[in-house]
Amino acid sequence: MDLSNKVAIVTGSGRGLGLAYAQQLARCGASVVVNDVNAETAETAVASITAEGGKAHAVVGAVGSTETAQALVDGAVEAFGRLDILVTNAGVLRDKVMWKMSDEDFDQVLNVHMRGTFTCVRAAVIRMREQGAGGRIICIGSPAGQRGNFGQTNYSGAKAGIVGMVRTWAMELQRAGITANAVVPVAATAMTETVPFLKPYVEAMHNGEELPAFARRELGFGSPQDAAGIVAYLAGDEAAEITGQAVAVGGDRLALWSHPDMTATAYHDGGWDPDAIAGEWPVTFAEHLESVGEKLPEKATAQ
C-alpha cells in the first residue's frame, strides 16, 4: 500500500486505536497530523512515527467544535501542503443506564463523537473539494452503534448516527471523487478493557500472551494494530470504488455490516388499523423480530 504524497488527519490519535491508525498510515508513506487533547501525549505519538522514518505533526485540541476542526485542516495544510485523508477516531465514554444518565453525560459524548465527526468531515471536505483531487473520509463506528449496548444510550446513538451520516456523505461526495466509509473495530483499548467477557483477553495481551483463536476469530478481538490495516486500505487508490460501507475489523476477522433493510412486509387495503395489525402481526412479523445487543458465542457469555 503506497500512500506517498498523501496527507492524513487522525483525530484522537495520541494512543490506542487512533495511534495505530496514524502509525499505519505513516508506514504506508502518508504524512500524518496527530491529534489529542493532551500536548505531551500528542508529541509522544508524533515521536513514535518520526522514529520509524515517518512524517507527523501534532495539533492539540478537543474535537467537537468548528474551531478545532478548522485548526486540524489548517495544521495539515501548513505542515504538509494539502489534505487527502481524514480518520475521525476521537471519542469519550460516559456510560450510565438511561435513567441515571445526565444531560451532560449525553451531550458530552454526542459532542465529541457525532458533532466532532460532522465538524471535522465538513472542514476536510471543503478543503478536498477545493483541491479537486478527491479524498478519503474514514469514520470510526462501534458494534454498540450497530446493535446497541446496555448503559450506552449516548455512545450507541452517536455511533449509529455516524454510520448514518457516512451513507449520506457517500452520495453527496461521489461527484467530487471523495469516498466515505465507516470502520467498526473491536480491539483492546481503554474503551473495551472494562467489558467483562473481554477482560481475560485484555489481561492476556497486557502480559504479552498470545490470544487464542476463539478470541481472534469468533470474537473478532485483537490489538489496535490488527484494526489498522483496513484504514490504510480504504485510504488508498485501490479503494476508490468503495464508499458508503461499514466494515467490521478485529483480530483475524474482517467483515461487512449490512445496511438496514425491511425483512418482512404485508399490505392491507385502506391502511392498517390496530385490529388489522393484531391479526397480521403473529402471521407475518413475529418470527422476524430482531435481537438487540451483541450476539456472543456461548464460550464468551459463560466467562
From TrEMBL:
EC class (word): oxidoreductase
Record bears the keyword Oxidoreductase: yes
GO MF entries: 3-oxoacyl-[acyl-carrier-protein] reductase (NADPH) activity
Record keywords, A-Z: Oxidoreductase
Domain Ketoreductase: 6-194
A Pfam family matched in the record: adh_short
Keyword Nucleotide-binding annotated: no
SMART domains named in the record: PKS_KR
Enzyme Commission number(s) of this protein: 1.1.1.100
Homology family: Belongs to the short-chain dehydrogenases/reductases (SDR) family.
Name the record gives this protein: 3-oxoacyl-[acyl-carrier protein] reductase
